[in-house]
Amino acid sequence: MKKEKVQIGQEGLFDARQLGVPKMLLLGLQHTFAMFGATVLVPIITGLDVSTTLLVAGLGTLLFHLITKGRVPAFLGSSFAFLGGFSAVAPRLADGSANLEMLPYACGGVAIAGLVYVLLSLLIHAFGIERIMRFFPPVVTGPIIISIGLILSPSAVTNASQNWLLAVVALGVIIVCNIFGKGMIRIIPIILGISVSYIVAVCMRQIDFQPVLDAAWIGLPLHTSAMAKFDLNAVLMIVPIALATIMEHIGDMAAISATTGRNYIANPGLSRTLLGDGLATTMAGIFGGPANTTYGENTGVLAMTRIYDPRIMRIAACFAILLSFSPKVGALISTIPTAIIGGISFILYGMISAVGVRNVVESRVDFTKSRNLVIAAVILVSALGISSGISFAIAGYTITLSGLAIAAILGIVLNAILPGNDYVFHKDDEPVKEPEIKHVTPDQQ
């Protein structure tokens, strides 16, 4: 008798166990590919250890899932928002090498910054999410989500321009598989896009395998010399960045909620997601890694595949941990040409902005009201126009806010002071009902 097949409807699939273990492993590997390029790019820029970064990303994701009761399909990778802080505390030396003496102090600042998340989580728990979320209606979060994807888009073009042929091959395979593919082919378009374009790159002799040959098979990802050290000046330079990343976290949670159709801000609650993200960031800093953040790349994968099971993210986290113990495997994955990552990002970053548009549309934000138009306009222009951020000094210390952070702050302030804020956050206290999984029987095929 022919085995039943699982059909993924428009509502998506929340229980990937219906697909079987092999397919779940492939889906987890796909999310690992999606996060890998950006996650390892942060340590490459800052001088932090790549293996340590992969380890804390995997452990941080598992910790996040533990605190959020395993309900939120999120992966925590390296945060780019703290690059400015690392550059200020531990700038690279004159010869371009990493500032190994100061990097631990920057990591100490990251560890303390994570505690800011914990503080806000406690405030939400104390005063209630309804009061807090009144400051974050869809007219604010929607444009912020749109901005996240649009801000990332230039990097996709820059990466793809390294080799447009490879980028187009990767992009084309993903589109074909996602639109015309059936069964598993439609579920793993990113892995297929990477695989096909990588083969093309090998044929074009674009891959240098020497780093793979030189790398060891097994290595420890933690180094005691890189673990966090604490200095007040470093803390004061890095901790304010958390105010910006908290806004990004709320936007990411809204994006994941809009993608899956479930309100994770209400259940398991923003207090839990902030707590999970904050503790993961603190742990990463203590171990000598970059700050963690929920990854938009993986949200893009969710939007594309419509497989929303958080178990897949935990599988991806386990893959990241395994990779951290194998420098050779990490070296092999790092040989993926930048152009291929750029081609993939065309889809993923665009998906993020599209989710923001959907969030605004489905929430029925009334843009006939001038206040809503003003708020959205200021957010979009600030996020996209202030590319280098704004720096200012407080007590002799220079603080830099990114365009996205400024946009979020302005949006929140305008929403609070302009008349006509009629948004009411509805919290569903009942457990979210699992959608019915549709099956295709042999008679229906």
TrEMBL record:
It comes from Merdimmobilis hominis. GO terms for molecular function: xanthine transmembrane transporter activity. The keyword Translocase does not apply. It is found in: Cell membrane. It comes from the Bacteria. Keywords: Cell membrane, Membrane, Transmembrane, Transmembrane helix, Transport. One of its GO terms (cellular component) is plasma membrane. This is Uracil-xanthine permease. The chain crosses the membrane at residues 24-44, 50-67, 74-90, 102-123, 135-157, 163-180, 187-207, 227-247, 312-333, 339-361, 373-395, 401-418. InterPro entries: NCS2, Xan_ur_permease. NCBIfam families: ncs2. Its main location: membrane.
